[in-house]
């Protein structure tokens, strides 16, 4: 019996050790970025599109909807007239928040400045969740709760999964199939010649 157990343990270690060696350094970051892109890239781009102003230079002037989504309490106080809101700091917050919804997801997806972009997205998701709870006053069912047996809470459950997907490239890097890896390779080659 102990021989059978030893054989199974050896087989287990052999199979999963080989998988770990074959995927080490490239797979987890790439897989996390792929999951992020397939699930959240279009979500954030579409959300950002609802926040830009009209016209060719609309990305320089967020819409009233951007102010209402990002600063809901302040918009209530000014009767939804964003012209009454000072640019510094509030307009700047809305402008940077709008740009973040375009820039950070693309950086994570293509693997450029991936660790910083992933950290930025994690902060974005945390702030977005805070604003939804305190500013938009979403109901308890939407917030959900951890360990409640119901995985459909949009904030507690789904956004925790979003953060986990972003933690992988932040902590493990983007993997070999990324612009970070390409630029790092170029930089190392260049350093050897100088």
TrEMBL record:
Put simply, this protein is called DoxX family protein
> What keywords appear on the UniProt entry?
Membrane, Transmembrane, Transmembrane helix
Identify the species of origin: Roseibium algae
InterPro entries linked:
DoxX
Transmembrane segments in this chain: where? 27-45, 52-70, 160-183
Q: Could you tell me where this protein is found in the cell? A: Membrane
Q: What is its main location?
A: membrane
**Pfam hit, one:** DoxX
Q: Its topology with respect to the membrane? A: Multi-pass membrane protein
| Nucleotide-binding keyword on record | no
């Amino acid at each position: 019996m102990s021989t059978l157990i030893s054989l199974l343990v050896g087989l287990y270690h052999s199979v999963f050790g080989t998988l770990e060696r074959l995927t080490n350094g490239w797979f987890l970051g790439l897989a996390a970025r792929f999951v992020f892109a397939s699930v959240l890239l279009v979500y954030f781009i579409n959300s950002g599109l609802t926040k830009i102003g009209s016209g060719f230079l609309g990305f320089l002037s967020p819409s009233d909807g951007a102010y209402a989504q990002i600063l809901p309490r302040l918009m209530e106080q000014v009767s939804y007239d964003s012209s009454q809101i000072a640019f510094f700091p509030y307009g700047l917050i809305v402008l940077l928040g709008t740009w973040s919804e375009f820039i950070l997801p693309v950086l994570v997806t293509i693997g450029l400045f991936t660790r910083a972009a992933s950290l930025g997205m994690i902060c974005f998701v945390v702030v977005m969740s805070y604003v939804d709870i305190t500013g938009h006053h979403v109901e308890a069912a939407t917030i959900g709760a951890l360990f409640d047996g119901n995985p459909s809470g949009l904030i507690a459950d789904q956004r925790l999964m979003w953060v986990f997907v972003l933690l992988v490239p932040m902590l493990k890097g983007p993997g070999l199939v990324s612009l970070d890896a390409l630029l790092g390779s170029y930089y190392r080659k260049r350093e050897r010649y100088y």
